[in-house]
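Retro notes, item 3 of 5
We never archived the inputs for the FE2/S2 (inorganic) cluster complex last cycle. Fixing that now. Sequence and ligand:
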Amino acid sequence: MDQQDIARIRALMEYEANRTEPPKAFPDLPDIPGGRYTDPRFYELEMQHIWRKSWLLAAHMDELPEPGCFRLWDNVGQPVVLVHADSGAINAFYNTCSHRGAPIVTEREGRKPRLTCKYHGWSYSHDGELLAIRDPEDFRNLDFSCRGLNRIRCERFGNLIFVNFDEQAPTLLEWLGPIADEWKEFQFDKCRLTGKHIFDLDCNYKIAMEANTEVYHVPSIHPKTVAPGLDHRRNVNTLYPNGHGRMIAPGRTPGVFEELGENIREITTVGEIARTCTQSYGIFPNWVSPLNHWRLPPLLFWPNGIDKCRLETWTMVHDWGDGPAPEVGDFWTTPDGSELGVVLQEDTQFGAFIQKSMESHGFKGVPLSYQEARIYHWNQAADRMIGIENIPPELRVAQVIGEEWMYPNDPRLEEIAKMQAEAVASRRDAG
Ligand code: FES
Ligand SMILES: [Fe+2]
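Structure as it came back at the time:
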């Protein structure tokens, strides 16, 4: 972020603190239909489209550190094996043997010189080529070149490994768009993984995720933890293409975001805003992460049925080099990783209740405020990805937030410029 970006964000903070209504150019948001959290038809559409066409964070390089290392990944129901190839590339395949569909690996993780199916012994290279089969004389015309493992797209952002099931999807960098540039300061190519856990929750993944996609809830459910250090009235939301979003609010809660482990290394390239504010990104469809100069701790929300989800907590810090590993563990959990830490307990406490409410006859839809615009933006992007015509009309959201709100466009900046010009003119008149 350069000085101009910082000045723009500071001006937007003051604008947000002083406004007495939503920005003039901001549309009224129709209610989000409650069925999007409870209707199996909508869940099916999400599985068919959103989880198949989006880039999904699957692993960290530390989990596949050397050639031959592999790891199972099935967070969206598809059996995937990630493999560190001899070339250094990371490959992703369906964990499905080309012979009769047995799993290629059955261990959650490990390291093997080649991938050999345990059913009849077909073996594959780390690049998925079929190398050898037992009793080849019993097959007629078996073309090895088309019997390799079925590949899934896999790309890296620094040490983060993403997968995408869609052949037609844009590249990961195109998907991230301007965020890829903004993230240079965090040096994801030097981040190391210090903790990762998974927790089952009794609500739709969107209910859990939305608690981390707005600051409207902060004074109510985090009065002693997050609220004292975060100025929610100065929060600035930014909407990006593809459903991504960002929040920046001045302040951070001491003891929650600044508590440091031994030997943790500062990410020196991180700029003023991420050092002094809570700067959190939502990456469509399921990533939320407050990033700063000490930690990179994304939360991932995975579907697990219409009324269940899995919350995956990650903590990464800057590479500690040859020194001793820092004692940081997982920032989001208790030190032994068995329970969510206090902030996430607060965030998730109502999930099961909200799910039940939404399933009740009494619940129709969700009226969102301007502060909660990122949730609406996510839903608009979801419908576009599903294909609006594929969604039953009663489950759609209207596409009311237009391109004029997509970064770098921002009608608030025009309002600010107009207010500044008026102030200059009135001072001139007074003088
Ligand atoms: S199913 Fe894998 S070798 Fe037969
Ligand atoms: Fe929260």
